[in-house]
Amino acid sequence: MNDVAIEIAATAARCVVEEGLAFGPAKHRALKELGLPGRTALPSNELVEREVLDYIALFCADTQPAELRALRELARVWMQRLAAFRPHLGGAVWQGWATRLSDVDLALFCDDTKSAEIALINQNQRYEVQTVRGLHGDDVDVLSVHSFCEALGEDVGVHLRIYDLDDLRGALLPDSQGRSPRGDLQALERLLAA
Questions:
Q1: Structure letter (DSSP) for residue 63
Q2: Separation between Cα atoms, residue 53 and residue 60, nearest integer Å
Q3: What are the extents of the domains in the chain?
Q4: % of the chain with per-residue pLDDT over 70
Q5: C-alpha–C-alpha distance, residues 169 and 139, integer Å
Q6: pLDDT at 158 exceeding the cut of 70
Q7: Is the dihedral of CA 28, 173, 140, 102 positive or negative?
Q8: Nearest of 92, 85, 133 to residue 110 by alpha carbon
Q9: Taking CA atoms, which of 2, 8, 63, 192 is between 20 and 30 Å from 30?
């Protein structure tokens, strides 16, 4: 691993924690901040994640655990609310390095992909729809809502990635470190009880 990759990862980690950027945009911001060419090789997500954890330990150790807990409790509310769609928590809140600037990312596995949208309408929830790359490289809809988090005293973005029920089979394959990339409500309850 070279020094440039570590410097990019460390700068990206600061952007992730202080600005709430996702890893991809944070890496590109790091290139610009460091004055590096756009074709510079980017560090792996694993390296950025290690740098994020180091940054949190150094600068946010007194606040991050409570912020993470608040976000996990908010995720639990949404997972209970949308239980019919087999919600699974992913991203920073699941992995444990979320801060107050992190959003809640839920994957919903639906018999009918429009049913989650209908459920939000029935609950009088305002949402925005966008399309992103999904689990298997296919485009999926993301329903984004703003949800007030009482423990943080502010709105938090909750993003609902809408998948077909068949996609659940491959959704829990472990990453390169052997970790599940997402967990269901029972798994989240175990994290909250720990």
A1: T
A2: 10
A3: 3-59, 64-193
A4: 99
A5: 18
A6: yes
A7: negative
A8: 85
A9: 63
Q: Are 188 and 76 contacting, i.e. CB atoms less than 8 angstroms apart?
A: yes
In the prediction, which pLDDT does 130 show?
A: 96
Which of 97, 2, 102, 99 has its CA nearest to residue 54? Answer: 97
Angstrom CA distances, 168 to 93, 144, 186, stand at 19, 20, 16
Mean residue pLDDT of the chain comes to 94
**C-alpha span between 125 and 118 (Å, rounded):** 10
Contact between 135 and 170 (Cβ < 8 Å): yes
* CB-based contact 86:171 (threshold 8 Å): no
Report the pLDDT averaged over residues 75-95: 97
CATH number for 64-193: choose from 3.30.300.180, 3.30.460.10, 3.40.50.880, 3.40.50.2000.
3.30.460.10
DSSP 117-168: HHHHHHTT---EEEEEE-TTS-EEEEEEEEEEETTTTEEEEEEEEEEEGGGH
Q: Return the beta strands (E) in 14-127 as ranges.
A: 88-90, 104-110
Other CB atoms within 10 A of residue 102 CB: 21
Whether residue 1 is predicted with pLDDT greater than 80 in this model: the reply is: no
What's residue 134's pLDDT? 86
CA 159 to CA 162: how far, in whole Å? 10
